[in-house]
Write a structure and sequence with these properties.
By secondary structure, the chain is mainly α. It is built from five helices and no strands. Helix 4 runs parallel beside helix 5.
Length: 120
């Protein structure tokens, strides 16, 4: 009887080792190999572009929404004062950004209309 129990324990240990090996193989198949391919594809893609990334500073200088998002409330209020927005001192940051964007758009449209009319 002891021999049977010992054989069963040995078989149990072998089954457990087999399960661990199967889990290891699955982990390699599911995690490691896809990560390797993702890194390889990323490396190939970057090498095709020769490392040229767009300059972020251009976007931050040209896009009004990005410029305003960097400003603190004090800077926004100064800009609102320069744009002659009434009641800006009681506005919160998000409201100021929205009002400044709207005012900037109307000023740009107005300037473009004046230029078009000037040349006619």
């Amino acid at each position: 009887m002891n021999i049977t129990i010992m054989k069963n324990k040995d078989v149990q240990k072998q089954i457990e080792k087999a399960k661990i090996n199967i889990y290891n193989i699955l982990a390699i198949l599911i995690v490691v190999i896809p990560e390797f391919f993702a890194e390889l594809i990323y490396t190939l893609e970057v090498s095709q572009h020769k490392g040229l990334l767009p300059n972020e500073s251009d976007a931050w200088k040209n896009i009004t929404e990005l410029k305003l998002s960097k400003m603190n409330i004090y800077e926004l209020r100064i800009m609102a004062k320069q744009l002659r927005l009434h009641g800006y001192s009681s506005d919160n940051r998000n409201t100021l950004i929205r009002r400044i964007e709207k005012k900037s758009e109307t000023r740009i449209k107005w300037k473009s209309l004046n230029i078009k009319n000037f040349w006619k």
